[in-house]
Amino acid sequence: MNIDLYAAFMIGLMGAGHCLGMCGGVAAALTLGMPGQQHSGRWPYLFCYNAGRLVSYSVAGAIIGGAFAGIASLSGYSSALISLRLFAAIMMILLALYIGQWWLGITKIEQAGQFLWRYISPTAKSFLPLKSPFAALPFGILWGWLPCGLVYSTLSWAAASGSAISGAGVMFAFGLGTLPAMILVGSMAQQLQNLLKSLYFKRASALMLLAYGLHTGYIAIKQLL
After folding, report:
1. Is the predicted pLDDT of residue 117 greater than 80, yes or no?
2. Contact present, 130 and 139 (Cβ < 8 Å)
3. What does pLDDT average to over the chain?
4. 3-class DSSP state for residue 77?
5. How many Å apart are CA 11 and CA 154, to the nearest integer?
6. Number of domains in the chain
């Protein structure tokens, strides 16, 4: 697997506890307007909601990947993408510290996205309660722009990917990594949800991301020297 795709998928997978905290309530709210509240009827809602999220992530990745690839090409700086990869490694390290609750400075980056979200949020909430699974698709597309440290960290990998298509692929891989937590949030045993939200799980995941970030940063520095 391409290293950027692997990194993105890993961020989504290891950030499961954070995903449940940020979006778990939203995923649960999808079924509030569902006729009969049947357990099996949740799946179309969850599928469409998450498909919408992946669309937004992919679009954001394409924009960021294409923009930075263009900047790197115009600048003529041959090591520009390697420098971006070093930045992405730093972002992963900061994200690991955030998930492990050792340092929460990355919340400042999340706050930067609040400017756009204040305009998107009212439109997204207007879809609730959802009348059909198809209404969950645009809801998911809008909710995909929720300010999130996981998303912003992964966008740094999209920026270093080298093209719009690769950037979209990176963010799509990230979205796939979040699916185990988000698809199952409506049906997981409470004990499993508690495990994913626990500090032990978060710190174990954070240590894995930290190791990967340090390794990637080391390789990028060697390539720059």
Report:
1. yes
2. yes
3. 85
4. coil
5. 7
6. 1
pTM of the model: 0.89
Give the pLDDT confidence score for residue 42 in this predicted structure: 76
Q: Say what the pLDDT of residue 111 is.
A: 84
pLDDT average, residue stretch 40-61: 89
Residues 127, 223: Cα–Cα separation, whole Å = 48
166: nearest Cα among 13, 62, 54, 47? 62
> How confident is the model at residue 214, as a pLDDT?
95
**Any long-range contacts for 112-116 (C-beta under 8 Å, 24+ apart)?**
112/147, 113/145, 113/146, 113/147, 113/148, 113/152, 114/147, 116/145, 116/147
Cα-Cα-Cα-Cα dihedral of 202, 203, 204, 205, to 10°?
50
Cβ partners under 8 Å of residue 5, min gap 6:
169, 170, 173
pLDDT at 33 over 60: no
CA distance 152 to 110: 8
Residues 19, 8: Cα–Cα separation, whole Å: 14
Residues 6+ apart with CB under 8 A from 9: 1, 173, 174, 176, 177
Q: State the residue range of the domain holding 135.
A: 3-224
